[in-house]
Amino acid sequence: MSGTLSTLGVGSFADALSGAAGGNLVTGELSQLLGTAALGGVIFDIIDSREAAGRRVERILFPGRPVEEQKFQDFGTIDQPIRITGYLAGDDYVIRAQRMRKVLLTAGRQTLVHPWWGRLKVRVLEPGEIQFSATRIRVAQFQVVLVRDPGPVSTGGLLQDITDTLTNLLEQADAMVDEATLAVQAVLSPLAIPLALSSMTNSLLSQASGIWDSLTQTAPQPLQTGIASAQATLAAGVSAPASNSDTTYADAVMTALAGVPAAAVNAITDPSDSVVAPAQQVEGSTVETVDAATVVEILLSAAVQTGAVADSLSDVTTSPADALTLGVVARTLIVSQLLGAWGSLTFVSSADAVTARDRFIAAIDALLTDLENAAASGASVSLSGLWVSIQAARTAIMADCSSQVGRLPKVVSIPIRTTISPGRWPMRWRGMTSRRCRACSMIWSAGTASAIPPWSDRVTFRFWSSSHEPDCYRSWPQVDRADQWPCDPQLDVL
């Protein structure tokens, strides 16, 4: 794995810089030190990054007193600005410089994907400087000063500790989407999209549409309705522009791939919230709902089939690396929504949670395998950021599952003599030692009733009697529902 990943950070930027006329400062050995980064969605290459960090300490000296009596006042931590020197390299370097200029003019917080610091929320602190030079063809240098702005820190008690693991998981899933967006923009960045690349992209979209059609044709009606618009967008495909001067084409492909899985997760409903529903979704008095388990099964199958489609396309296209990369992106978008559905799942026991976690981990591991195959095939874009975000998501789901396992009960099945419906009896028997039947005066003891879990769908009892009334006793072996009891089911507490 490490051997494959070592090639992920070396992409087309080194090739572009090595061909720059007069670019001695960015060619040769130094070009290998560059790292791919992005600010506000614009990809560039970092050659230098500086940042100072420390504490705000005030030193106090007193007149006429020795230095040894000095005092210090600590005002806490401080992050100094991040000063970045980067390069926009390639045939489209002027267009990318124009996009970077718009980013520098944008107000508010922005996302910086740093090759060493990772993903940061920053603000532009000082005006950036973009420099063109006749001695560096196809390369634009720029400098920018940023400051970290993570936002206000939310604090909470026990509830905050419980939800932290799930919040972290959702943040990592969002980071996967951001990295996938950067990968698509890098693959579909040429000024003139080759016919082979556009054909392969539309083929991927078309086959992905077929996958979703087959997986959702028997799905609940609310799910089919929820994904209808996104499915139509995916089936329509995306036409390549005559001049690919911005990220419009890449963004359209990204929207088409991400729309259906996102809509599927959004279609998950809570039965308790379905008070009023459209007429076509109601048959009699039953309201059809979409549970998280159904959506998870669909997403797991879609991820596997999408990976297989990308592998098949790589065998027949003239750009197999791009096909595998777009396949990784499509699968990443599905897995990211799969992680979003994790929080909607409910588990009866710790064993159920561990089983579900193992299936999610298997889906993530399969995605990592596809990513490594794409890198090994000679992908021209950097996939290191995507690999890091997927690994972080894998760790996050394991942490959240471990947190849930600690709060879930251990369910043990006990063989019993007979069963009754839980509709009327669990709350009557739980916690009681014995009851007397009003009709026949038989005393029934519920020795195991105190161990009944209130969340079980079916409750089992074991009874024994202290007297032997003929009617009840003869009917006892055939009793399996409350309405089959030969006597009045209302009991008196002894």
Description of the structure:
- This is DNA circulation N-terminal domain-containing protein.
- InterPro entries: DNA_circ_N.
- With about 500 residues, the protein is an alpha+beta fold.
- It folds into three domains: about 120 residues, Elongation Factor Tu (Ef-tu), domain 3; about 250 residues, no CATH class; about 80 residues, no CATH class.
- Helices cover about 45% and strands about 20% of the residues.
- It is built from 13 helices and 14 strands.
- The protein has a six-stranded antiparallel beta barrel. It has a four-stranded antiparallel beta sheet with strand order 13-11-10-14, with no helix packed on it.
- A hairpin with a 2-residue loop joins strand 7 and strand 8.
Poorly predicted tracts of residues: 1-33, 155-162, 272-285, 419-494
Helix/strand-derived category reads alpha+beta
Distance between the termini: 69 Å
Oligomer: single chain
Outline type: flat
- Helix count equals 13
Q: Please state roughly what percent of the residues sit in beta strands, choosing from under 5%, 5-15%, 15-25%, 25-35%, 35-45% or over 45%.
A: 15-25%
Rg value: 31 Å
Helix content: 40-55%
* Strand count: 14
* Number of discrete domains: 3
Query: How confident is the prediction overall: mean pLDDT?
Result: 74
In spatial order, strands of the major sheet run 1-2-3-6-5-4
The major beta sheet can be summarized as:
6 strands, antiparallel, barrel
Written as H for each helix and E for each strand, in order along the chain, the element string is: HHEEEHEEEHHHHEEHHHHEHEEEEHE
